[in-house]
Write a structure and sequence with these properties.
Blueprint lengths: L2 E8 L2 H17 L4 H22 L2 E8 L6 E8 L24 H9 L2 E6 L5 E8 L9 H14 L4 H87 L8 H32 L7 E3 L1 H12 L8 E5 L8 E3 L1 H17 L4 E10 L4 E8 L22 H5 L6 H11 L3 E6 L5 E8 L16 E6 L3 H10 L6 E6 L2 H11 L3 E5 L7 H10 L8 E5 L5 H6 L5 E4 L5 H12 L6
Parallel strand pairs: 7-9, 13-14, 13-15, 15-16, 16-17
Antiparallel strand pairs: 1-2, 2-3, 3-5, 4-5, 6-8, 9-10, 10-12, 11-12
């Protein structure tokens, strides 16, 4: 229910002065701070003057709205003048006709209140309603407050124009001082921001320099490992051949102690050769020089070869190794040697860390994905949860009694991981300390064309990154760095992103959710509505939690990825999978 506080007719300038004074008294009684008192009084004065100029007279009413939330002071200024042809000109952002001050009183008043509404028709006058939310400390508004305000009106009496002018001058001076202070603060902030930007630019330059240095160092490391591995193989091959001659006693029998010494020599040489072979393979993978030789073969043939190669390595009678039946499985078309190398690493690790029990090698076809899952399950010591990521890092090894007894190179699992990715697959690990481990290799049943590395699969392509954060656009460049012939372009706003997509026709778009003015959802909607752009795959990235609701809102995106979880591996895998497909142009 609206409560009338005060009504005043406007017939001349003195009435306007009086109305301004009443507005200040009412605002002060309701607990508005001095700055908002001035805003309310100024809005009343501006709209009242419009009524006086265009209609010759009018009326101002002050109401309280206690039933609203939040509670409000409402001021209604009405007149019976000629009205307005276009009340929409009150829009502060609307273009205006030439002419000083046309509609500016309405616009100025609108900026000073919380809600502003105007009703006007030619010949029917104009009614302007302005509302200001009451301060929280005002408490509940009721008839007693209205009565108190009316008493205050009577006590205030007629306004003294001179005193009002002095008060306005003070308010103007205070506003000018506050504005100067804000300008000074803005200048300080601008200077700090400029200095920060210079620092960020310098940091980016340094990071680029470091990244280039690391790239060159990695390239030199790979080249060194490759060259040195070949150099080491020649003398090692000689040592192994000579030790075999001695052990076979071609030139005469050996004493038992000599036999033991030669055996140690041979084992050490075999261990060193294993390390060199793994280093050489890793160097080839990192350099993109490890090729895929796809052939047709069956799981049965693969298991048969593994069974024969591993038979000499079985040294514990307490451990049994079993290979599951595989006759019903479809044939594979991929690199048999690399699949065997991965499974051999799995089985050798299982043998090292299983004192008693069993090792089971199984294969399973997942028809929906047309993927083969090879699993090596053991009943050994198991791997603690906190160590499961570390074992896939180069030279990462878990300390333990069995680890000390059966020292490995620490390169088998990292190499297996990279080989699996090279074959278009991945590795899964399920393990619990003391209860054994299961290493699973997932690969496509058919690898149609030879691959080099994950990078060249998306060569000669363009990716557009639409994100308002400079830092994240830089991160995307770093995560996708080193891929030959991949061009990355950037857009800082949604509007720029849409324009670049139309002009460049990228092969994929990485799109942020939260951006100023127009967000990622709007960009997604515009692009999917355009027949020429709708087939471009869009990957949404966000710092928000990735919920089912967010995924539903980003309908049309290939995926929604959390920024904090992005890695070079996951981003390259996603892009490789999608961009390799034909893209509509």
């Amino acid at each position: 229910m609206s409560l009338m506080v005060y009504r005043q007719a406007i017939g001349n300038e003195r009435d306007l002065v009086d109305a301004r004074a009443r507005a200040i008294v009412i605002a002060a009684e309701l607990g508005f701070p001095a700055r908002e008192q001035t805003q309310i009084a100024t809005a009343v004065s501006e709209i009242g003057r419009n009524a006086l100029i265009h209609a010759g007279k009018g009326e101002i009413e002050f109401h309280m709205e206690p039933g609203e939330s939040p509670q409000r002071l409402r001021v209604v200024v009405s007149d019976s003048g000629p009205g307005m042809r276009d009340a929409g000109m009150v829009d502060p952002d609307a273009p205006r006709e030439n002419g000083a001050g046309r509609g500016m009183g309405l616009v100025s008043a609108q900026r000073l209140v919380d809600r502003f509404h105007i009703e006007s028709k030619p010949g029917n006058g104009t009614v302007v309603s302005m509302e200001k939310n009451l301060p929280v400390r005002s408490g509940d508004i009721g008839p007693d407050v209205a009565a108190r305000l009316q008493v205050a009106m009577k006590r205030a009496g007629a306004a003294d124009p001179m005193r009002l002018l002095q008060a306005q001058n003070r308010e103007l001076l205070e506003a000018m001082a506050a504005e100067r202070e804000r300008q000074d603060e803005l200048g300080r902030l601008s200077q700090e921001l400029e200095e920060t930007n210079r620092g960020v630019v310098a940091l980016y330059a340094e990071l680029d320099e470091k990244a280039e240095y690391l790239r060159r160092a990695s390239e030199l490391k790979s080249r060194f490992l490759s060259n040195m591995s070949h150099e080491f193989r020649t003398p090692l091959s000689s040592i192994l051949a000579l030790s075999r001659l001695l052990m076979d006693q071609v030139d005469g029998p050996l004493l038992s102690e000599q036999q033991k010494q030669v055996t140690y020599i041979r084992k050490s040489a075999e261990g060193l050769l294993e390390l060199i072979n793994d280093l050489l393979d890793l160097a080839k993978v990192e350099a993109g020089k490890l090729s895929i030789n796809s052939t047709d073969f069956s799981v049965g043939d693969l298991f048969g070869g593994l069974r024969g190669a591993l038979r000499p390595l079985i040294t514990r009678d307490t451990v049994s190794i079993g290979f599951a039946e595989s006759d019903a499985l479809p044939p594979l078309h991929t690199d048999e040697g690399k699949v065997a190398q991965i499974l051999r690493n799995f089985i050798v690790n299982a043998m090292r860390f299983t004192e008693r029990g069993s090792i089971e090698v199984t294969a399973r076809h997942h028809a929906a994905e047309d993927m083969l899952e090879f699993a090596v399950k053991d009943s050994g010591v198991g791997i603690a949860q906190e160590d499961q990521d570390m074992i896939f890092e180069e030279f990462g090894q878990v300390e333990g009694a069995l680890q000390r007894e059966t020292k490995g190179t620490g390169l088998g699992l990292p190499l297996s991981k990279q080989l699996a990715e090279l074959l278009g697959g991945h590795i899964q690990l399920a393990s619990k300390l003391g209860e054994g481990s299961t290493f699973a290799l997932w690969i496509p049943r058919s690898l149609e064309a030879p691959l080099q590395t994950a990078g060249p699969a998306i060569a000669n392509r363009r990716v557009l990154v639409v994100d308002d954060e400079d830092t994240f656009r830089y991160i995307i460049r770093q995560l996708l760095g080193g891929i030959a012939n991949l061009e990355i372009t950037e857009a800082r706003t949604a509007v720029e992103g849409i324009a670049r997509a139309r002009h460049e026709r990228p092969d994929a778009i990485i799109l942020d959710v939260l951006m100023p003015n127009r967000g990622g959802q709007e960009v997604l909607r515009v692009l999917k509505a355009d027949p020429d752009l709708r087939d471009i795959p869009i990957f949404v990235t966000t710092s928000l939690p990735v919920t089912d609701r967010l995924i539903a809102e980003m309908n049309g995106a290939r995926s929604v990825m959390a920024k904090q979880n992005l890695s070079s591996e996951s981003l390259r895998a996603a892009l490789s999978e999608v961009i390799a497909e034909p893209v509509g142009r």
